[in-house]
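Researcher: Here's the sequence for the chain we discussed earlier.
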Amino acid sequence: MRTAIIDRSMAGMGFMEITSKSDAYLYMNALTEAGADYIEVDLPALMRLPKPSGAENYIFRIENAEEYQVANVLPFAYALLPLKFSYLISKIEIPVVLEIKTGDADILALLKVVSDSIDLTGVALLRLIGDFRKQSGDFKAIINKIRMKYAVPIDICPLNTTLGALSSIIAAYEAGVDSVTVSFGNSDNYAPLEEFLIAMATVYKTFISKSYISGICKASVMSALISDIETTNLKMLMKRYRLSPRKIETIDEQPMKIMPDFSDSDESKHRSLVERKLDDLEVDEDLLEEISDKLRKCGIDLYASEKKDEFLN
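Model: Thanks. This is the structure I predict for it:
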């Protein structure tokens, strides 16, 4: 069984006023290219995207009770309900993801209370969100007990409150959960999609195809163009692929915020291992050319007016 990857960075994203539907769609496509199987969107994100066709594998996050009607009229893969809206399960006509925040509670004890009041057989996917490093006992054993007792697919979404989200998401993957939820560039709150992919590519050599580097690079650029999210992962990628704020700012007819000063950025210690792994990846000129071609289709020219040889050197 393959563990699916859900990216939730578009849900709750602070979109810039100038963000167009085509730019938001390019960002979503970049996340998919990088390796995300499903993209979680809320109503504000949905309003920034073209009308779904059904091929995008969207998970629609319901933040207000009346939004369940939106889930019933558009071709989403799933509708996501926080636990407080569990009474809407029977009203939704597509598969439901039920999200439970575990906090510091014992997961098994919490699920016992939930299952006594909610029929979990009507749930297509059970998302557990919390800081799993605080759980007593082996995390993999806990996941297996949940699977055996409740017979419902499990999604794990670790919070990064102790900077342990990345290790928790890897442990969940190794335990064979049905899906994991990450958030591109948002490492302050969740396990970042890009760090998870880098770690997986390092540990499981064939987990991600070579094209994921292009997707991550493209998503980093697009996230800076469409939102107020700042990610130090963009600094790593720009360094690796010889990008610069000036090159990005030369995109034709695309206004944007002033890029942060990457030369004076204070990266936290937990990023150092990921940065070393990124530096260890073999990237030759042919792959760099492939990346530049894909970015060029977005209107981003890595080489700008410089000669290729000067850019590479």
